[in-house]
Amino acid sequence: MRCLVCDANEANQSGAHIFPAWMVASAFDVEGRTRDHEIIYAVQPFDSKLPYFGNSVHPDKIGEQIGRDLTDHEIHEQKNYLTVDKLWCSKCEKRFKIVEDYFLENVDRRLNDYSKGSKSEIIELKHADNYLIRLFWYSLFVRAQISHFMGFNLYYKTYYKLKKFLNYYVKDNLQDTIQFIKSSYRKDQILKYPLRCFKGYQNESHSDGWIYVNNKYYKPYCFIINNYYVQFYGKGDRAKFKPESFFGISGIINKISNARNYKEALFKIVLLDINMTNEIKKRYINYITAVKMEYCTIMFKSFFKWKFKHNPDNTATGIFLNELINNDLPQGIKYTKENIVDALNRTLLRINLLPPPI
Ligand SMILES: [Zn+2]
Hints:
Layout: E1 16-17, H1 21-28, E2 39-40, E3 52-53, H2 59-66, H3 72-77, E4 83-84, H4 90-111, E5 121-125, H5 130-146, H6 156-169, H7 174-183, E6 195-199, E7 211-213, E8 221-225, E9 228-232, H8 249-255, E10 267-271, H9 274-308, H10 314-325, H11 337-353
Parallel strand pairs: 6-10
Antiparallel strand pairs: 1-4, 2-3, 5-10, 6-9, 7-8, 8-9
């Protein structure tokens, strides 16, 4: 297969991260070490698989998450949701790394000099190249699209445009890339998509980040990549947000004016304080829980109807949700297919014991 980025070389890159390793590492490992230490939960609410455990995760940790060891079969079946094989070529992977490394050195690490979490603030990045920062974000959007991460789907015209930017502007090394962008008289086209970028406050001792993308155009596209929150408009000068469409970030944006990047010379990142970060996390958990429960409820209803030829009443549905949620199963296996079926069976037993309706 040909590389889905450059469309020229063979797609030979294996084990490629959809999002940079340094960016996601601390989401899954307290000490932010290599991918071998990661424990990754599928964030898709519909996924009933076991979490992914990196090779170096201690057996005690696995026991904590799923209440037992992994079987040989399960070890074989383990899939890291954040890496992909043979979708693009090693040359394009190298070009991705150029913008990744640039962002890490010139943006991410420098942000540590600012907020200590007590107050949100807008940081204008005077020392970093606006165009390269843009290309970094675009490379993530393009990779999410190519790997269909969580069903992510960019508007096709935007997708081709972003890919074109990457192929045209990002060269084989940083120096050439910077030179080429400098000399390009059309470079401002890279800045024409409105984009907002937030970095949440990260408590050193916690690894509770998430990777989440909105799977469709939602005015704007939204990404949570560990402690980064990014909103991206696929076209034009769109500045309106659907209220609360992104875990309350919209409301927060209204409190912080002028956070948008659109054709300005300097790139802006909003550093969120502890309270705002926690508020977003809370809303995100509520959202995921609600979607999960909705999915399980639909499953229960269709199963019930198939068995009894009529819809369950609220009592029956309530019993099911109670059986599903209120048990001692470790978090890592609570919503696997087997345990949902077990909850269904326990529910049927309890329904049979209910007094007949009057
Ligand atoms: Zn390529």
